[in-house]
Amino acid sequence: MQDLSLPRRALLKGVGLGALAATATACGPAGPDAGARDGKIVIGYVSPQSGALAGFASGDAFVVDRVRQTPPYAKGFTVGGKTYEIEIVVKDSLSDPRLAARAARELISHHKADMILTSSAPETTNPVATVCEAQGIPCVATVVPWEAWYFSRQADPDDPRPFTYTTMFFLGVDEFGGCFVPMWERISSNKIVAGMFPDDADGNAFRRAWPPIIEKAGYTWVDGGAYKQDRSFGSMISKFMREQCEIFINAPLTPDFNRMWRQAAADGFRPRLATVAKVLLFPSDTLPLGDLVDNIATDSWWGPYMPNTSSLDGESAKRLAEAYQSASGRQWLQTLGSVYSLFEIAHQAFTAVDTPRDRKAVAARLRALNYSGMSGVLDFSRGPVPGVAIQQPVGVQWKKGVGRFPYEMMVVDNSLNPAVPIGAELLPTNQ
After folding, report:
1. Would 22 disulfide with which of 101, 108, 329, 388, CB 3.0-4.6 Å?
2. Does 1 have pLDDT greater than 90?
3. pLDDT above 60 (res 194)
């Protein structure tokens, strides 16, 4: 397989400036004797359950309830020969970085959290992690590209320093490249890639991060130009058509992509393969576009096709997805597995130390953790920077459903994760 790693300087410049961070203020002591009440471990959880990013967290309530029913959480954790009751306190960031930081401070000062878990986009994960690092509270984040989480919280992204209390697991730019490029190789003939990236923090970061991967893979990059929200995409589409772009990549807000994609269809721009990021990650994203989503490809870091099982009670990924669909009436979504694994990690870390009150010991255990669970193997000790574990995604396409849901995410490429079976043929987008 091709070496698609991104040069360090490009990575720092490309992604280090592309995510939000928040400044925390101290709210109390952070030593081993501070924290939860005697006989109880308090685990806080912060995610965007409302607001613009609410789609990411639409399955969170189900997962938290299911975790509470697993034996370790229902019966308590045994730590240093003593059993502790587990209390999970959930906070909504409202998709606002300032409120995410406030939620973390409330969990620390009011609820006396021993650990804080957080998920879903840098607008939530980064301010929460920033507060926890400042307060000396063990924290685990997920569903945020690791570069956006790690470098943007550094005082000097060109000279990053390891964090002590904050860790995370998810994908990075190399994984996007390793997932998308093998699909391009099977579809494209002229190797010309169109990029749709807005003039915002994420768009500018992706715009800088992608070209080295594209060039290394032997492709030509056509930038559609930084754009503002609520505009026509006619000139961008014309440029892509003029340059005969066969591959399309992006990282827009969902309303912008929906408008652009409809306009592209009307104008006759039909790339042979669209590989999208940030949009079309969840079933609800497909509904506004209808058949225009047919065979659009993206990355999948979790799904019922993953051969993963819970470290808490042995439940399979397939069973977790089916249980969510049965309980909610809605289609499974990728964040189910990610959020579940946050609570697996908390259990792994607490039960490997002598006391949950020793925050430094818990944080050190998180950075050294290597286990297999709902998200597969997560090794925090080996990953691109200290305290980061990398998942290996698969390439998927949205295809018309054969059951009760109109579209289904089907695995079409497993180059990065051969243990996941191929479920459908990779086909050109909208052809």
Report:
1. 101
2. no
3. yes
How does residue 17 score in pLDDT terms, banded at 50, 70 and 90?
very low
To the nearest whole number, what is the mean pLDDT of the chain?
A: 89
Q: What is the pLDDT of residue 383?
A: 86
Distance of alpha carbon 277 from alpha carbon 41, whole angstroms: 37
Residue 2 lies in a domain: no
- Of 180, 116, 170, 118, the residue nearest 144 (C-alpha): 170
Q: Which of 155, 121, 144, 114 minimizes the C-alpha distance to 53?
A: 121
Q: Which of 345, 357, 11, 2 is nearest to 181 (CA)?
A: 2
Do 211 and 145 reside in the same domain of the chain? no
- Taking the CB of residue 23, how many other CB atoms lie within 10 A of it? 9
Triad 37, 110, 367: Cα angle to 5°: 70
Query: Which residues constitute the domain of residue 192?
Result: 174-300+395-413
Q: What angle do CA 143, 145, 146 make, to 5 degrees?
A: 110
pLDDT at position 362: 98
Regarding whether 195 and 335 lie in a shared domain, the answer is no
- Number of structural domains (the chain) is 2
pLDDT tens per residue, range 312-342: 999 999 999 999 999 999 999 999 999 999 9
Same domain, 163 and 214: no
Angstrom distances, CA of residue 46 to CA of 108, 133, 331, 395: 12, 15, 23, 29
Same domain, 314 and 296: no
pLDDT tens digits along 50-93? 998 898 999 999 999 999 999 999 999 999 999 999 999 999 99
> Which structure tokens are listed for 413?
């490429």
| CB contact at 8 A, 89 and 111 | yes
**In terms of DSSP bridges, do strands 273-276 and 247-250 run parallel, antiparallel, or are they unpaired?**
parallel
Q: What CATH number corresponds to the domain at position 96?
A: 3.40.50.2300
